[in-house]
Amino acid sequence: MAAVVIYGGSYYQMRSLLQQVMTGWVNQIAKSKLDALAAKHQFSLHLIAEQASRLVQTDEHLYFVDQNALKVIFPVSPYVSKMAISSATKTKDQGFGWQADTVRHSWQSAASDEELLKSCNVVDGQHYWARHIRTEGLVFCTGRFMQGQAIQSIAIQINMQPLLQDLQNNLNLVDEVDHSLQGHPYVKNQLTGNFMLGSEFIPKDISTRPTEGTGKGSGLHHKQQLQDTPLVYGFYFPEAEFQAYLGKYFMIVIFSMGKDMLLMCVAIALVSRQTTKSLRSLSKSTEEIAQGNLDTELTKIPRSDEVGRLSRSFRRMRDSLKLHILELQEATAARQRMESELAIAAQIQQAMLPSADAAVDPRYSVSTLLQPARVVGGDMYDFFHVADERICMVIGDVANKGVPAALFMARTLSLMRTLAHQSSSPAALLFAVNHELAHNNPECRFVTMFFAMLDLKSGRLQYASAGHDAPLLLRDGQVSKLALETGPALGLEEEASFPQFEIHLLAHDIVVMYTDGITEARNQDNEEFSEARLQTTITREAPAFAADIIRSVTLAHQQFIAQAPQFDDLTLLSMQFHPEAKRRKPAFADWQISLNGQPLAYEQVRPHLAGLLQAQQVSEEVVDDLQLITEEVLVNVIKHGATDQDPASIQLDVHLQESEVVLDVVDNSHAYNPLHGVRQPDLDVDPTDRPEGGLGLYLVNALADHIDYNYAHGQNNLHIRKFLVKP
Amino acid sequence: MLEISIDETQLPTARIDLSGSLDTSTAADLEQFFTRSVSEDVKVLVLSMEALTFISSEGLRVLAKIRKTMRNHGGTTYFVNLSRQVQKVFEIVRAAPLNEIFTSTAELDAYLAEMQRKAVED
Predict the structure, then answer these.
(1) Residues of A in contact with B67 (CB under 8 A)
(2) Among the four residues A384, A490, A536, B119, which has the most C-beta atoms within 10 Å?
(3) Across A66-80, A199-213, A332-346, A550-564, least confident range
């Protein structure tokens, strides 16, 4: 595109330049040639007139008889062809004339040319130019006078041929390219109004045309009057011819420019092809690199120009990419190893914390939340029985976060569990734990902790704190802080003591313990969630159950924090006291079992089930598996189930469907998810050395093809499917 | 129902035949029977389970306990003729090391003879 515009521009420029130059040049040449010729011919004609004038002043006899004498006065020139003389006084000489012999440069006497003489009409010593009466050629007339009487008249016929020839020879512009003649000279005789030369090319009205240059449409025109003669010399270059002439030159220029350009294009194409050859191979290699093939062989380009430098840079880039990727792979592998270890650590840490289901006594319920800021955290909570009637509750926060905090947290939790059984009071326990932690703690790590013991019979809650915030008590919709004076954080002073307090819990009281991750969390405006907001949230929602507190606080907290990042671990533990709740553990025989609506004793269930399935042509192996599944599920409920409902019941429903047997087990014991915490026994360890328990539910999981559990309306619902044919 | 019989005529090898089903209601029976009937003189206890059609996790627990007791006495327990269901459950939980499980009495006898020959050579 750009090339077309540039080419167009230079085409236009070239055209106008050429037109100017050519016009000026032709003008100059034509004018100067015309002027020179006109001057020369004018001189020649003047000379003839001069010589003729001198002739009439000499002795008349001389040129009548002596050609040599005549020659002296009037030398023969190529422009004179003949001379006619008439004399009024000497009758014998009346018809006398001379013929010019241009070869011998002499005059030859000849008869008088009457026509020539008649062309002149000499009166009173005049000399002038006249036209030949027949040929309309140019004639110079002069005469000899005596006392005002013409006694002799002389007519000289001018030979126009050499003049015109001269003009034609000199005034034609010869084209340098094809030697053709350009433009047309002309000669006009003003006496006759006719063209003596060029009449076939010249428009009749040429005399009225302006001269000088090219008027638009009128062509190029010059004319020059020969002084004291009736001749006008001119040069005419018609517009159309001039344009054609210009056009021819222009075409030559264009052709030459085009040829140059073509050659240049070819040269450029060759050079760039040579240059880009290496670039192309480089680009191909680069693409392979981009697709991940770093072992691509890069073409060696032993050049010192940009391409060579580029190829060397690429080589370096590929090498350092290779190195980087290798390093990255190693780093990634290391990080993945670290991450997977951390994830396992997080699982282990999570496993150290009891779930809400661990509250096995109906007289209290617990709900918890622990959300570490990183993969592993330093927050902790725990609750456990130390005796049938006594439970312990702990919440704590290890200074700092991450793996060191998590390890310190694990150490603290283990110590708590171990020492709780030996300690009679919270103060004593905190003292013992602190002693252990501070004893060997060069890093001066510490943990804040709140510890409480609840007597389920009396409702007496004894508690002590090691630098931890006082929990909240929700009683009858009112939130208050437990009265508390706290001791130092655990792990700092070996002999620290911890003041102990107590309060009597009433039915439905909820104690809410939390870490400062909750209250000190900040939102995007850098506002703290704060203890006041925590209290307000609980007061406003006035939740009826321990689990509702966790839910509503979590929700309010999330809404408050919104998009702000979590900096600290969040931990909540809420405990509700239900002294009136009575849950019994039914005796083995008290469970009422039914299979497809038919009441059965425990021992009858399996044979009955087998009979039912065999009657429907279910394969022995599937029957075996379903018997075992049923046995394990039943035993699990009967052994571990506790209920406050009467009677304790287990309903089994077995149905054969198109491709599977569906077993539904519904019991009314407390919520107990048999799928929770099912772990594969360590099969590499000798079976005798494995920890007891858990095998039954593991077998159920292994044998069933699909298991679902949910708890609704005070009933556990277990939905098991066993395929008839293994897919 | 579980039926238990013991053959102690070839001490220190004793052979217990189990038939019926070893589940929650019968596991205690086997446990008691073992405690009562198998003395510390028994060094090789063969549990023949050809007629044992059913075993549950409770049964596995008792078998593990028996193995442990035997091991503590310096004895070994072998399981012979596992029925289909028992075989499957054993496989799922790897209830015993494979070198203590034999598919037939003859195979076990050959193995024991070999062991004895080695012991004599030593």
Answers:
(1) 687-688
(2) A490
(3) A199-213
CA pair distance A448, A488, nearest whole angstrom: 8
**Residue in A560, A486, A481, A500 with CA at minimum distance from that of residue A525:** A560
Closest by Cα among A65, A59, A84, A63 to A74: A63
Report strand pairing: B76-80 vs B44-55. parallel
**A683 and B84 in contact by Cβ < 8 A?**
no
Cβ(A181)–Cβ(A172) below 8 Å: yes
SS3 of residue A601 by DSSP: coil
**Residue A613: its H or E element:** helix A602-615
CATH code of domain B2-121: 3.30.750.24
Q: What is the pLDDT of residues A173-228, one digit of tens each?
A: 666 666 666 778 888 888 888 888 877 777 777 766 666 555 555 677 888 888 88
Chain B residue closest in CA terms to A680: B93
Which domains, ranges and CATH numbers included, belong to chain A?
Answer: 353-577 (3.60.40.10), 588-723 (3.30.565.10)
Looking at the DSSP bridge assignments, the partners of residue A721 are A662, A706
- Using the Cβ of A685 and the Cβ atoms of chain B, whether some distance falls under 8 Å is answered with no
In terms of DSSP bridges, do strands A460-466 and A447-455 run parallel, antiparallel, or are they unpaired?
Answer: antiparallel
Residues of chain B with pLDDT under 70: none
Domain boundaries, chain B: 2-121
Per CB-CB distance under 8 Å, the chain A contacts of B31 are none
Cβ contacts (< 8 Å) between A625 and chain B: which residues?
88
Is A696's Cβ below 8 Å from some Cβ in B? yes
Does residue A647 have a cis peptide bond before it, meaning omega lies within 30 degrees of 0? Answer: yes
**Of all helices (H) and strands (E), which one includes residue A574?**
strand A570-577
Q: Are A222 and A34 in contact, with CB atoms under 8 Å apart?
A: yes
Task: State whether A624 and B64 contact (CB < 8 Å).
Answer: no
Q: With beta carbons under 8 A apart, name residues in chain B contacting A603.
A: 25
Within an 8 Å CB–CB cutoff, is residue A703 touching chain B?
Answer: yes
Paired tokens of A638? 């009967």
Q: Which of A242, A239, A229, A234 is nearest to A207 (CA)?
A: A234
Query: Residues A347, A351, A357, CA angle at the centre, nearest 5°?
Result: 135
Q: In what order do the strands lie in the sheet with A364-371?
A: A364-371, A570-577, A510-514, A472-475, A478-481
What would you measure as the largest C-alpha separation in chain B, in angstroms?
46
Highest mean pLDDT among A365-379, A484-498, B108-122 belongs to A484-498
Q: Do A699 and B92 touch (CB under 8 A)?
A: yes
Q: Tokens at residue B74, please?
A: 């310096």
DSSP state of A99: E
Distances in whole angstroms, Cα of residue B98 to Cα of each of A217, A501, A686, B90: 121, 60, 11, 10
3-state secondary structure of A155: strand
Q: Is the overall model pTM greater than 0.80, yes or no?
A: no
Of A293-297, A388-392, A500-504, least confident by mean pLDDT is: A293-297
Q: Which residue of B has its CA nearest to A696?
A: B57
Contact of A497 with A427, CB cutoff 8 Å: yes
Closest-CA residue to A100 (of A153, A51, A37, A143): A51
Q: Residue A681: closest CA among chain B residues belongs to which residue?
A: B93
Whether the CB of A168 is below 8 Å from some CB of chain B: the reply is: no
**Pairwise CA distance, residues A542 & B33, whole Å:** 59
Each residue of A647-691: pLDDT tens digit?
A: 888 899 998 888 899 999 998 887 777 776 677 777 777 777 776
The Cα–Cα gap between A496 and A487 comes to 7
Q: What is the mean pLDDT of residues A18-22?
A: 82
- How far is it, in rounded angstroms, from Cα A424 to Cα A429? 7
Is A610 at the interface with chain B, CB within 8 A? Answer: no
AA identity, residue A65:
V
